[in-house]
Write a sequence for this structure.
């Protein structure tokens, strides 16, 4: 595939294999030729309504065929998709609309009350899926589609502005150019060895860079994607993997935890599944080992990345999962990763430093936010905000977020290190560690722990376990057992909410 533009990828497959499956849900299916025609027609309607190259169009939709059609249509005419989560509230959406100056939004009928109020405030025109656009992406109109003049896309034009809720702070708009999208896609296709025979089961939101990269890589390779939003019924999703003949499945740590708790994979039979991928935060070591066995012979790829890198920065080859347990792996093709000190100089192997990245997948910056952009982009390198160490074999190990580091008894301590130790306990499903201040001791670690079903683990038992794996000053002073921890729509732990909502005398029952 010579072109770097997603609409061209789809049109190319439509010419070569018009009847090949492209996108499906439990309710709708489109071949490549049908997908190409759907987004051509919608693009023509957008253009006739006055949407032009350079415009920014908000998309706030669940995972539907119409979501894929709408975004390809917007990009076909040279406009930029502004991607936001479809569960976000009015204040965040209003701030994004004001910042981007968007005058068009594609939304779902069930959210019409929210978006009608926003439309009045920001003079928006709404395109409503479930009304003017069907959920399978067809335009509901009595008139024929107007003609569409081709638009020449350019490599450094913005294809997307992806607003990420992140784990702390206000949403920021990450600009992703066609160069970024193309580089990220080709890199992932290479190390996963994707072909037109692959079919992905996608339960992650398309508004999340991980979910979006699954879509993009399969549209590039000529494969297909089955979008399924039924993950509250995980067995139905696992059975769909089998029934749809899916060859791969992507999840975050909570995805795999839910399957582990609720589905007996041994009785399902996933004959065509050849690999599963995990990103979006560190997964409990015991769950990693479970996933490697439960999905066998499918291989498990553990991956690391950021929206600012258009998704992917590193991966752990499945054959190294055992001897490099806990590693986020090696750089993906086309990306250079370094571990450096505060001045940007490389640190010796084994020492903790700042993880920085360079490659064509790295964003040119945050939309309309030059100060924040200067914080993350320095002399051609993306400063990820993460701390890591590299071993003698070149494998990277995530240590934690720079901003999350605790200072305990004069020592710098990563919450992620403590969480990783806690989740080694076979009765622990998940843990979150935050800093708490005591009058005498100063800053100490407080751990909030989700136990597995049927567990009888106590605070004293977990503390004894921690002492076997951590230096005494790193063992949490406070341990509380909770039913669940807060996550964003992408499954990422919301550490700031852990601190604000759970850190208190009545936040959880002590055992």
């Amino acid at each position: 595939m010579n072109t770097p533009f997603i609409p061209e990828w789809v049109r190319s497959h439509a010419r070569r294999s018009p009847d090949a499956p492209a996108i499906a849900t439990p309710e709708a299916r489109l071949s490549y030729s049908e997908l190409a025609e759907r987004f051509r027609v919608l693009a023509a309607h957008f253009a006739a309504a006055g949407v032009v190259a350079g415009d920014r169009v908000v998309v706030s939709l669940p995972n539907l065929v119409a979501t894929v059609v709408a975004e390809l249509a917007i990009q076909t005419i040279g406009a930029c998709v502004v991607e936001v989560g479809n569960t976000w509230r009015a204040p965040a959406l209003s701030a994004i609309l004001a910042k981007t100056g968007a005058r068009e939004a594609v939304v779902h009928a069930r959210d019409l009350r929210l978006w009608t109020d926003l439309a009045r405030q920001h003079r928006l025109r709404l395109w409503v899926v479930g009304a003017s656009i069907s959920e399978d992406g067809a335009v509901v109109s009595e008139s024929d589609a107007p003609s569409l003049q081709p638009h020449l896309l350019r490599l450094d034009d913005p294809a997307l502005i992806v607003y990420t809720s992140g784990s702390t702070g206000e949403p920021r708009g990450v600009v992703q150019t066609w160069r970024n999208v193309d580089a990220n896609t080709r890199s992932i296709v290479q190390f996963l060895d994707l072909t037109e025979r692959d079919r992905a089961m996608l339960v992650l939101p398309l508004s999340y860079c991980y979910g979006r990269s699954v879509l993009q890589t399969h549209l590039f390779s000529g494969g297909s994607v089955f979008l399924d939003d039924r993950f509250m019924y995980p067995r139905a999703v696992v059975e769909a993997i089998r029934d749809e003949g899916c060859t791969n499945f992507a999840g975050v740590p909570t995805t795999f935890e839910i399957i582990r708790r609720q589905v007996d994979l041994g009785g399902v039979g996933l004959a065509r599944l050849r690999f599963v991928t995990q990103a979006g935060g560190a997964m409990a070591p015991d769950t990693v080992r479970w996933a490697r066995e439960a999905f066998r012979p499918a291989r498990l790829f553990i991956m690391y990345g950021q929206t600012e890198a258009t998704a992917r920065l590193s991966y752990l080859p499945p054959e190294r999962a055992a001897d490099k347990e806990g590693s986020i792996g090696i750089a993906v093709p086309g990306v250079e990763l370094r571990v450096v000190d505060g001045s940007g100089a490389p640190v010796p192997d084994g020492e903790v430093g700042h993880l920085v990245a360079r490659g064509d997948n790295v964003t040119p910056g945050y939309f309309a936010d030059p100060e924040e952009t200067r914080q993350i982009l320095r002399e051609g390198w993306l400063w990820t905000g993460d701390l890591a160490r590299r071993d003698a074999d070149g494998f990277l190990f995530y240590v934690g977020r720079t901003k999350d580091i605790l200072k305990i008894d004069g020592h710098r301590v990563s919450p992620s290190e403590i969480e990783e130790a806690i989740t080694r306990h076979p009765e622990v499903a998940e843990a979150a560690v935050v800093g708490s201040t005591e009058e005498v001791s100063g800053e100490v670690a407080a751990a909030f722990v989700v136990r597995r079903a049927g567990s009888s683990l106590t605070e004293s038992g977990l503390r004894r376990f921690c002492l076997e794996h951590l230096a005494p000053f790193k063992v949490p002073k406070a341990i509380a057992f909770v039913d669940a921890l807060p996550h964003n729509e992408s499954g990422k732990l919301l550490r700031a909410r852990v601190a604000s909502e759970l850190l208190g005398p009545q936040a959880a029952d002590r055992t």
Notes: The mean pLDDT is 93. Residues 405-502 form a domain with the GMP Synthetase; Chain A, domain 3 fold (CATH 3.30.300.30). The first strand starts at residue 21 and ends at 24. Residues 32-48 form the longest helix (17 residues).
